[in-house]
Design a protein that fits this description.
The protein has 187 residues and is mostly helical. It folds into 3 domains: 45 residues; 66 residues, no CATH class; 54 residues. 72% of the residues lie in helices and 0% in strands. It is elongated.
């Protein structure tokens, strides 16, 4: 479809400038190349080229620059949910700018101040799905710390303190190791 459109634009300009005899030759060649009916080809070639139409619907409000700044803020806030990040954004922007970790234009700051929690979650959706090696290592470390805390100290009954939690700990350690293996093989 694109080649027909390009051909129409190139030949159409030449067709509109030509006299009657030249138009006949151009039209014959154009009909043979495109397979259009002769009357349709005349209409197509006489039509002035129109500028491309804009996409339907509202324009994107949060562009890639806002999304990149949001990802930086989200990482700095230890990957918290959108609702909590929304409340932290002004504080994070001020402190990160003050310490030289972030520099934003005025427009980006305003859009980040107006962004909703649902939009934050939507913009971070694909970033959250990717497991990182650091997050898998941190998950395994916190699970081990929790396991040590549960084991330390005698219980009143003399049995294991948190029998139901052991299953979840071992599962989280296995998941963390699996995520680490996946993310290291992806590198």
């Amino acid at each position: 479809m694109r080649t027909r459109r390009e051909l129409t634009e190139a030949v159409g300009e030449r067709y509109r400038r030509s006299d009657r005899n030249e138009k006949r030759q151009i039209l014959d060649e154009f009909v043979e190349l495109t397979g259009y009916h002769r009357k349709h080809a005349i209409r197509v070639l006489c039509r002035e080229p129109q500028p491309p139409r804009a996409k339907p619907g509202p324009q994107r409000r949060y562009d890639d620059e806002v999304r990149a700044a949001l990802i930086t803020l989200w990482e700095a806030a230890d990957r918290i949910c959108g609702k909590r990040l929304k409340a932290l954004i002004p504080t994070l922007i001020d402190s990160m700018t003050r310490h030289g970790h972030l520099s934003l234009s005025k427009g980006v700051r305003q859009r980040l101040a107006q962004i909703s929690a649902a939009t934050i979650d939507r913009l971070l959706q694909d970033v959250r799905r990717k497991p990182s090696a650091a997050s898998a290592d941190a998950l395994a470390e916190s699970a081990m710390r929790f396991a040590v805390q549960c084991r330390s100290g005698p219980s009143l009954t003399g049995t294991i303190r948190c029998p139901l939690i052991w299953r979840s700990i071992s599962l989280s350690i296995a998941v963390a190791r699996r995520l680490t293996a996946i993310s290291y093989t992806a590198l």
